[in-house]
Write a structure and sequence with these properties.
The protein is an alpha+beta fold and 211 residues long. It has helices at 5-9, 15-29, 157-172, 189-195, and strands at 35-39, 44-49, 52-58, 61-65, 83-89, 136-140, 145-149, 182-186, 204-207. It has one domain (5-93, 129-207): L,D-transpeptidase catalytic domain-like (Beta Barrel). A hairpin with a 4-residue loop joins strand 1 and strand 2. The longest helix is centred in the C-terminal third of the chain and has 16 residues, at 157-172.
Length: 211
């Protein structure tokens, strides 16, 4: 059995969980696609394929956020790890979206692209660099969400009060408020933009135990 890097890096984890990690990564490494490895303890997110690390991002912070009512509230849910999460809806889903023309018309030589060197020709628009956002959310198949941000998120007293009032109104109208737990990945803006396209529906994320 191959001791994959994710399991070897999980120091302080008991043998049962380490064996579980080996089996999980082995199942991902048998496929040809990319997968991510999140190590909360080392604050590190890696991109791997076939068990080989292609790149890694050092995170500023990995924190778990969960809304709790201002008055009372349930206990926090434990981080489901070790586990393989899958992206249920990601910001990278629209990266390759094709926009079709709204109208069709017969081809004409006059519609050919004008020579950019000709006098009076309009220069072609330059593609914007770093066009992807540096903050975004990723929905997971476990009902949780990843929140990629550039600074540590905080849920202040006023925001908790406002959310509590809003929840109260929803319950009065027979609706059940939903506050999915969040795992915040704090990283540099450039790193967040570089990872944006990887968070597509179906992308597996191997999560190491935080302790």
């Amino acid at each position: 059995m191959v001791a994959f890097g994710a399991a070897a890096a999980a120091r302080g984890v008991d043998d049962a969980k380490r064996l579980q990690l080996v089996e999980m990564e082995a199942s991902l490494a048998r496929e040809t696609g990319l997968y991510l490895v999140l190590d909360p303890r080392a604050a590190r997110l890696s991109v791997k394929v076939r068990g080989v690390e292609l790149s890694s991002t050092q995170l500023v912070e990995v924190s778990r956020l969960e809304f709790q009512p201002l008055f009372g509230g349930a206990s926090s849910q434990p981080l489901p790890a070790p586990a393989i999460w899958h992206v249920a809806e990601g910001p990278g889903d629209t990266d390759r979206e094709t926009i079709a023309p709204t109208t069709l018309r017969p081809y004409s030589e006059e519609d050919e692209r004008q020579d950019p060197s000709a006098p009076g020709a309009k220069p072609a628009p330059k593609k914007e660099e770093n066009q992807w956002p540096s903050t975004y959310r990723v929905k997971l198949d476990i009902g949780w969400q990843l929140m990629v941000v550039n600074e540590s998120p905080r849920l202040g007293w006023l925001r908790r009060l406002s959310a509590s009032v809003r929840d109260g109104w929803m319950r009065l109208h027979g609706e059940e408020p939903s506050h999915p737990p969040l795992v915040a990945l704090v990283m540099a803006p450039a790193d967040a933009q570089a990872l944006h396209h990887l968070f597509r529906t179906g992308m597996p994320i191997l999560v190491l135990p935080p302790e």
